[in-house]
Every structure is written in structure tokens, then in C-alpha cells.
Amino acid sequence: GEGMSVREATIIAALVNHPALIDENFAHVEFLDLANTDLKRLHAAILDAMAHDMANDRNAVIATIERAGCGEIWARVVALIKR
Q: What is the model's pTM?
């Protein structure tokens, strides 16, 4: 897959950090077309959090991401957008 773009990483980080955005924009969030394979996995974990009603706050979303084995990807997203 392609390298992680700052733009895509920023979108994903915004959703994790502000889960209310997921709810408000679910139709758009659900069909986000991401080029990067790792971000696709994170995106799937975020949708999973929503589906299981675990997206009420940032910590719940991050817990779901970690359970999905995507904690390392999330760490890379955070590092990328903090540059």
C-alpha cells in the first residue's frame, strides 16, 4: 500500500480524538476511501467501536483500536501529525 499521508492520518486522528464527529458524519466516515493499508485497519477498528457502542469517548475508541492490534499504527498516526 501507499505510505501514510498526513491528510489521511489527520482525518483518522480527528475521528478518534472527537468521536462525536463519527456519529454526526457516519455516512461519510463509513465510506472513507483511504489509500494506506494501516489506516484502513484503524478505520475498521473505529467503525467497530461505533458498532459496539464503544465510541462515546476517546479512551473507549483507543481501547478498541488496541484490542484490534492497531495500537502501533495509532502511535504512528499521532507521531506523523505532531511533526
A: 0.88
